[in-house]
Structures are given as structure tokens and as C-alpha cells.
Amino acid sequence: MVQTIKGIAASDGIATAEAYLLVQPDLSFDKKSISDADAEIGRLKDAIAKSDEELTKIRDIAKESLGDDEAQVFDAHKMILADPEFTGAVEQQIKDQSVNAEQALSDVSNNFIQIFEGMTDNAYMQERAADVRDVTKRVMAHLLGVELPNPSLIDREVIIVAHDLTPSDTAQLNKKYVKGFVTDVGGRTAHSAIMARSLELPAVVGTDSITKDAKDGDKIIVDGLNGAAILDPSDEDVKHYQKLASDFAAEKAEWEKLKDEATVTADGKHFDVAANIGTPDDLQGVIENGAEGIGLYRTEFLYMQSDELPTEDDQFEAYKKVLEGMKGKPVVVRTMDIGGDKHLPYLPLPEEMNPFLGYRAIRISLDRQDIFRTQLRALLRASAFGNLRIMFPMIGTLNEFRDAKKVFEEEKAKLVADGTKVSDDIQLGMMMEVPAAAVLADQFAKEVDFFSIGTNDLIQYTMAADRGNDRVSYLYQPYNPSILRLVKHVIDSAHKEGKWAGMCGEAAGDNVMVPLLLGMGLDEYSMSATSVLRVRSLMKKLSTADLKDLAERAVTESITNEDNKKLVEEYLK
Asked: Taking a C-beta distance cutoff of 8 angstroms, is the pair 266, 543 a contact?
């Protein structure tokens, strides 16, 4: 009997295949008393070494198929294995309690997981619970001599069905055989969803019940466009979705034709559609998808990939590679945004109740000016090789921007005095993600060269809702009139002073948000490279004259997020 299960559309596309239940092995064990603690610790160390070796292989596969950004999660897993606070605690438990390694590992990891999951006001630490669980499972399997599922060995076309997909699982998916996946839990910002979009695999997450409803070998359709999984579909259902898949493929082929075109609306207005990147390795995707620039270069990945602070020369080479690769197209570089959910093992940060509201981003840079000045010098040196724009993250006050600009100007003057070639046309802007700054955008606009709106943080701060907390995920509302009023005020303030405004948050590539942003006159839209051609195609069909009225209604007449979603969807029909 046909059964339709609704979930969250995590990655576009439609696929039909048989279900492959990614079932976890039995990792149960008996608690045992041991007399030789050294031998038991030896078993533990052997299991850790094997796990570390596996993670290295998985990371390398992920790096090749998904890129550096997504592969970094496995470096985090390797760091847990190397963390003496974790492994040392397990060893100590073996010694103190005279228990087998399995019991000690279970006790210590459960304690870590419970602590992390209880940090409901800290998304970064909550995510660490999933990492500890994933790592523990791998070590436990080696202790028990049990093999973990290996999705990379799948040799037939399937739709993966799982309670959740760990980063390890997702990294091993072979696109030749895995046509999509459906999970019980998760959201659009989960690791697995992000990886699915990188692999361009249809995915539906957060169904609640797919593992209970589906059986191994069942025919299943995953509709990543509308967020649904169809179990035991009829022949008519299969034909219907085959047509939808064919239509989507044809649509993507049409998008490809726009690769070398400028982004122009139906009434002839040009807007810049740019891409977000994390490393120079992401350049290929930017170029292949015809982005008109880079609207966000997340430089913190340079720091996260290193065992120590990257040198000025290391940073210079990375920035130079990106600027040269873009061949004169604008590259907006965000200075180091560490803190919140991004930590460096070699740069200890203070324990905080609310890291997202604490010591992070520009606050660290202005405090640790040795780090900040090194980065700015590298950027200034690289500026001679392309069209560089620099923006400072997490600016909350005018004094913060002025202080950052002063440091920039001091380092520029030193380099010029030393005879180093530096561009004299570097725009200095800021991320608009702190509500207090957005409210005061008219004053900031007098001093900055541009704004880039970071919707992910702007929304969570405005709605007082941690975007990584499933319990309050309903408050992640990009179309809420309160958010749109802030966005419009930022754009209007920039234009009044003759400056440009962009957006580099998740909403910049959202089909509902784009018409509203066009109506508000947003100048630049920066998104994942795989979304560039879709958004360019959408803009070609829209007239800004009509959209001004639509945006005005969204800001002044609508009351809820749902009102505006419906408003735009009806307009696009």
C-alpha cells in the first residue's frame, strides 16, 4: 500500500530505488572485572589506533568527493581520539574501577554525551555530543571485533534509509549507487544535509518514522524538492515522479546554459550572484557554476586546518590563489570568525555560558591584535593580485568598526613604507548580523564601503533562538516581517549613502527570499556554488518593478513568516 511520509527537503532532486536500511550492528557487551589493567589499556589503545586509521581514510575519501570543508569533521573526530581528557579518562576508569575497556569507554563517553547534550544554549557543544557518539561507536566496534556498516561497499542502486546519517556514513556514499537518502531526524543545517547538497543527492530528513515504516528492499521514492518519501509506490506514482525527475534534470540543463551569462532580471536590471567558499580548493565549483564573484571567503578554515596559527606567508599564498583564480572578479574576504561554534585546539578560549554571545570573531581579533595584524598583512599583500574586499564579522558598535579599520590602515601604511605593492582600491565592509548594528545601519553606512547581511546569525539573534537547537528550530524564520524590516533597513541605509549591500547567509539562495530581496533592491547574493545557476534562472523570470510592491506588502502588511511564504509562492505561480 502506498505510503507518503513527509519530512524536510534537505537536498534538491528526485530518485527512485530500493531501500537500503543502514542498520547499526549490535555493540552490546558485558561488564567484566579485570586483573591486568595494562593489558586492557593496550586493547583500548589498539582499538583507538585502528579507529584513527579508519578516520584518516574516510577523511581522505570525503576530501576527494566533497571538498575540504566537509572533510574537516573527521579531523574533529581524530582530535577526540587524541584528546587526553577523553582517552585519559577511559584509561583512568579501567585502572580505578578494574573494569574492561568496553565498560570504561561506555561510562566515560555517556558522561561526555550527557554533559554536551545538556548544553541547550550552546549549539557548538551540543554538536560535540554527536561527534563523541560517532567516535565511541567506532572504537567500541574494534574492541568487540565487530564491523561497522560500510556504505562505500554498496554495489547496487539504493536509497539509504537511516535514523540518522553520521558524517562518517555520508562521506562514504558512492553516487554511482546511492541515489538519495531519507532519515528519521535532522535538519537542513545538519552535516549530512550539507554533504548531500555537495554531492547533489536528493535527501529528505526529519521524517520521524522512516526506519519504522520502510523495510530493506522496499521500493522507495525520495522527493527532495518537496520533502517527502513515498513507500511502495504504484506504477502511476513511479511514472509521475519519473516525469518530475526528468523535468528537474531538464531544468538543470537549462540552468547550465546560463553559466557564462550575467544575472539580469526580466526588466533588464543586473544583480551580482556570487558564491561562498571556505578554501582555495572550492574555486573550481565557483568557476564551473559561473558565479560573478565570491561574496564570502570564510578564512577561519585556514586556521582550523592547521595545527598552529597559520603564518603570514601561508595566508598570503591562499588569498593570492583565490584572487588570481577569480581573474578580477570581486572577492569578499571575511576576517577570522573563530569562536561560537568554531574552536581552535591551539587557541584556548574561555569557558562561556553563551559562546555565540561571547568572545568571538572581531572581538577576538581586536583583543589579539597579533593574530589580526598578521591576517591583514597577508590580505594586503595579496590585494595586488585581484579585486579584494574585506569585511569584519560580528560588528556590534561603530567603535569596533573604527578600531578594526584603524588597524588595517596602520598595517597598510607599514607595507607601503616598506615598498610592498598593495592595492589602493580595497573596499572595507562589515557583516550585518548583530541586530543592534542593523538598527543603526544608517549610521554605519556613513563609514563602511558595503554591508553583507549574515542571515543565519541575524535571525538567531533577533529571534533569540539557537539555530542549532531542534526544540526551537521553528523560530528560524527568514521571512518573518521583523527580519525583513531589518534587512530592508540595512539595504535602504546603504543605498542612501551610495554604498552596496549584499547577503551571504542561507537566505540569499532561497527561492522564497530571492523575490523579496530583489524587491528591496539587494545588490549582491552570495550562496553555495551549486545554487548560483538556479538563482540566476529564477531572477531572469522576475521583474523588479512588480517585486517592489511585493516586498512592501511583506514588510508592512504581513504578520507572520507563513504569511510571507504564502505571499511569494502565490506570486510565483
From this structure: yes
